[in-house]
Design brief:
7 helices; 74% helix; single chain; mainly alpha; Four Helix Bundle (Hemerythrin (Met), subunit A); lipid metabolism; two-stranded antiparallel ribbon; 2 strands
């Protein structure tokens, strides 16, 4: 297994770790940082989540730079992203920090695009991530991080940044999903 795929797998293994810190109250007190009152366990979870999310950029960069792009990597990378984002948003719904309707919209899009990719693979075609799909992922990571960090920094200027990012993430999620289906409608024509 090459290094980019090992990095991708490390992202998957970090998911349960960040969930433990996010969902199990350790009662370590709070961190008062840049205007926010953050439970320490949420802060640790956010750091692990951000590290895990950053491996998405790292594995892609390494695979392209050293020409180590593999079919396994093309399969594992989006799967790891979906597992990470799904775990984050479902956990944040459980904590009452993320609206269930937004999580449902995001998860529906993720499953739909995954289904599209699976159908296309049967025809020997790999649907690469679009620029909108990449922006969608960034917005979701920023929204989840801002929520775990209890709107840190933005509390100082009374801007509900985390709440704004929820809507940005949902809009980019919907737009990128529509974009995938419009650009790849030929997949359904071949399949029928």
């Amino acid at each position: 297994m090459n290094v980019p795929n090992q990095i991708t797998i490390s992202r998957i293994f970090l998911i349960p770790l960040f969930m433990v810190f996010l969902l199990i109250p350790f009662s370590w007190g709070h961190i008062h940082l840049l205007g926010a009152d953050i439970p320490t366990d949420h802060f640790v979870a956010a750091i692990i989540f951000i590290i895990a999310a950053s491996t998405d950029w790292l594995d892609g960069y390494y695979a392209r730079k050293y020409n180590l792009v593999t079919n396994m990597g093309k399969f594992l990378d989006p799967l790891a992203d979906k597992l990470l984002i799904s775990a984050a948003f479902i956990s944040l719904v459980e904590l009452g920090l993320f609206p269930a309707w937004a999580a449902i919209v995001i998860l529906m899009r993720e499953f739909a695009v995954t289904g599209l990719r699976l159908i296309s693979v049967e025809d020997g075609e790999v649907i690469a991530a679009s620029i909108w799909g990449k922006w969608k992922t960034v917005s979701q990571i920023v929204a989840a991080s801002a929520l775990m960090l209890h709107n840190m920094i933005f509390e100082l200027i009374s801007v509900p940044f985390a709440d704004i990012m929820i809507y940005v993430a949902v809009l980019l999620t919907l737009f990128s999903g529509i974009d995938y289906f419009v650009k790849n409608k030929h997949v359904f024509q071949k399949a029928s």
